[in-house]
Amino acid sequence: MASQEIEALASALARLPGLGPRSARRAVLWLIKRRETSLVQLAEALEGVRARLVECQTCGNVDTADPCSICTDPRRDARALCVVEEVADLWALDRSRLFTGRYHVLGGRLSALEGVGPEDLSIGKLLARLEAGGIDEVVLAMNATLEGQTTAHYIAERIDTLPLRVTQLAHGLPVGGELDYLDEGTLAQALRARRPVG
Ligand SMILES: [Zn+2]
Question: Which residues does the UniProt record annotate as the domain Toprim (predicted)?
């Protein structure tokens, strides 16, 4: 029987994406053997994230400041807004450095199967941002999955009456491809070749 502390850490790690109970237990043992080095580093990194990271109430990004460094960066084009499903997608797109505007993170995608409706995503906040004015172009950068595309169409319909240029990432993205997994060249190409929704 492992101690309560080990069980608690193993079961917390086992809930991480991509880690099952077996690999979680192996990770715990690995850390215990390196308690003065890797374990201390991990504990400090976790505490740093816990203590300092907040969600930006404007765009949904995760940063050390609210509003985040992207929302407050004066060099960014406030007239262009890129809508993504998850923070990981925002980071992936921002690494490509081709989009100079700001972002809006939905916090997921519409899914009848998983019971995710519009009220579960930050679509209301997005509409409020757009209705407040000052934005000319909205880039719908949903993943090329069925649910991602359903979400993009839903948003396009909801903002149909606003005076905006609505574009989406060019097709040619692999179907089912998650933005986060694409190489930067492919992402940049999809962004450069973005086309009007319609
Ligand atoms: Zn922000």
Answer: 79-174
